Amino acid sequence: MRRYLAPLLIGLGGAAVLIWLGVWQVHRLEWKTAILAEIDSRISAAPVDLPPVPDPEADRYLPVRVAGRTGARELHVLVSTRARGAGFRIIVPFQTDGGRRILLDRGFVPIDEKEAPRPPTRLEVTGNLYWPDERDRFTPDDDRAANYWFARDVDVMADVFGTEPVLVIARGTTGDDTSVSPLPLDTSGIPNDHLGYAVTWFGLAAVWLGMTGLQLWRISRRTL
Description:
Layout: H1 2-43, E1 48-49, E2 63-70, E3 75-81, E4 85-96, E5 101-110, E6 122-129, H2 154-161, E7 167-175, H3 194-222
Parallel strand pairs: 1-2, 5-7
Antiparallel strand pairs: 2-4, 2-6, 3-4, 4-5, 6-7
């Protein structure tokens, strides 16, 4: 029996750790799913007027409505969509009817429409406040001369346009210019891979137990 003890303890102990990791990922999945549901609920809530001083944490995802006029300049942020492929987000300064200057993410245009004329126009916009965190050490530097941006840096873009560091991502617009298709804010870009991790850990636990059973069988064959 002593021959079986060490591999049995290692096998059961290793499987217990792997199963615990799988259970932990299941709990993480429940936690992340609840967070995403809360964000989705906040995104789709009834829009309100733009707060006087939006807070990047308290007002993240806040639905708002604004009316005003777009500026003449644009910033083009490279983006890829599942439905339409590669293109650009169109970021413009937006002068509200109340006299405030903010940033507006109007949405998507295909690559071949990057330089299409889009003169200043009046728009009524419903959208969401957001402060994207899209830049990491792998993000290329923006090519400002060619107007190629690779991340929506709200503070940097606000400095370029001389606006408040406030970005509204359009969900819907009404007005004279409908050449830009809104890319509404949603939770599709927030990773939720915990189910895959849980399946991996449980699968490894099954393999570990199988290998343990095989080792015990080999030991039994040697003792015959």
